[in-house]
Amino acid sequence: MHAMQYELTLPADYDMDVIRARVARIGHLLDDWAGLGSKAYLMRERGVHGSPVNQYAPFYLWNTVEGMNSFLFGGAFQGLVDDFGRPKVRQWTGVAFEEGAAAGSPAVTAVRRGEQVPAGAQLSGLLQEAARESGRLAAQDGVVLAAAAVDTHRWEVVHFSLWDHDAPKEPGDVFQVLHLSAPGRHALPRGRQW
């Protein structure tokens, strides 16, 4: 599994209905994308859930590198680039994935929390803890899915969870889910991934 996200931070007075309309118009285009586990079309609005910014920030879980590369380099990503410019795309290596207690429910919000890997930390123990954290999140009432991944360039672990309600009680950046494309979610490997 590979995780990926880009963030488009927009002006404070940006009409976020433009983003809602964009996702309503094109979100379905990835509903059957080969190699995609799931794509959560995420948005933060300034002042909502404590967000300091307006932001469009889709989060992806990929089953295959080919599917990810086909999206980035085969033309689909170019539409976003043409409209907003080319964002920096973050990529993480998957550590764990779990279906949540509310796996059959629609996702309403997402929480993303990053944590630096301390210098000198034993990586196997720290990443085992990250995998356990995915399991803990997934077991909570209202969680649709939970994942953990690591950026080995910046040495950061990201915890990502989707929720079926508007008020998750987990720390991190809270996003509104505008659409969820999940053609290969059933094929995402469960549990620890090493």
Give a brief rundown of this model.
With 194 residues, the chain is α+β, with helices and mostly antiparallel strands. It has helices at 17-26, 65-73, 78-84, 123-138; strands at 2-6, 8-10, 36-44, 54-56, 59-62, 89-99, 109-116, 143-151, 156-163, 173-181, 191-192.
Please describe the topology of this protein.
Elements: E1 2-6, E2 8-10, H1 17-26, E3 36-44, E4 54-56, E5 59-62, H2 65-73, H3 78-84, E6 89-99, E7 109-116, H4 123-138, E8 143-151, E9 156-163, E10 173-181, E11 191-192
Antiparallel strand pairs: 1-5, 1-6, 2-4, 3-4, 3-5, 3-10, 6-8, 6-11, 7-9, 7-10, 8-9
The largest pleated sheet is described as:
8 strands, antiparallel, barrel
Number of helices: 4
CATH architecture: 2-Layer Sandwich
Could you tell me the radius of gyration in angstroms?
A: 16 Å
Number of domains: 1
Query: Distance N terminus to C terminus?
Result: 11 Å
From the spread of the alpha carbons, the general shape counts as globular
Low-confidence blocks of residues: none
Describe it.
The model has no long low-confidence stretch (mean pLDDT 97). By secondary structure, the protein is of the alpha+beta class. Helices cover 22% and strands 37% of the residues. β8 (143-151) and β9 (156-163) form a beta hairpin. It has a single domain (2-192), classed as Alpha-Beta Plaits. It contains 4 helices and 11 strands, in the order ββαβββααββαββββ. The relative contact order is 0.25. The protein has an 8-stranded antiparallel barrel with strand order 1-5-3-10-7-9-8-6. The protein is globular and about 45 Å long.
Characteristics:
194 residues, alpha+beta, Alpha-Beta Plaits, 8-stranded antiparallel β-barrel, globular
